[in-house]
Amino acid sequence: MLEAKRLLAHSGLPAGTCAHRLRFPGAGNFTTFFRRRTGLAPTPWAAALHHKP
After folding, report:
1. Exposed/middle/buried for residue 42 (C-beta within 10 Å: 0-12, 13-18, 19+)
2. 53 has pLDDT over 80
3. Nearest to residue 40, comparing CAs of 17, 8, 3?
4. SS3 for 45?
5. Do 34 and 4 meet the contact criterion of CB atoms below 8 Å apart?
6. Sign of dihedral through CA atoms 31, 32, 34, 38?
7. Would residue 6 count as lying in a domain?
């Protein structure tokens, strides 16, 4: 989870690429995993980081 958050927050990579790098079988699996743990899908989660004051 920590590596997923790090990639999304600092690499600028899209969620599908992060899923591949983290060896998920597909972007959908990664999105489900991420949403269950954070309450948000990867893309909105990363967007929220960059829009905080």
Report:
1. buried
2. no
3. 8
4. helix
5. yes
6. positive
7. no
Q: What is the DSSP letter of 11?
A: T
In a domain, 3, yes or no: no
Assign 52 a pLDDT band (cuts: 50, 70, 90). Answer: low
Containing 39, the helix (H) or strand (E) segment is none
Q: Give residue 43's domain range.
A: 11-50
Q: Tell me how far apart the 2 most distant CA atoms of the chain are, in Å.
A: 35
Number of domains within the chain:
1
Q: How far is CA 27 from CA 5, 51, 52, 53, in A?
A: 15, 24, 26, 29
22 belongs to a structural domain: yes
Is the residue at 1 inside a domain? no
Contact status, residue 49 vs residue 12, Cβ threshold 8 Å: no
Tokens 């489900």 appear where?
Answer: 32
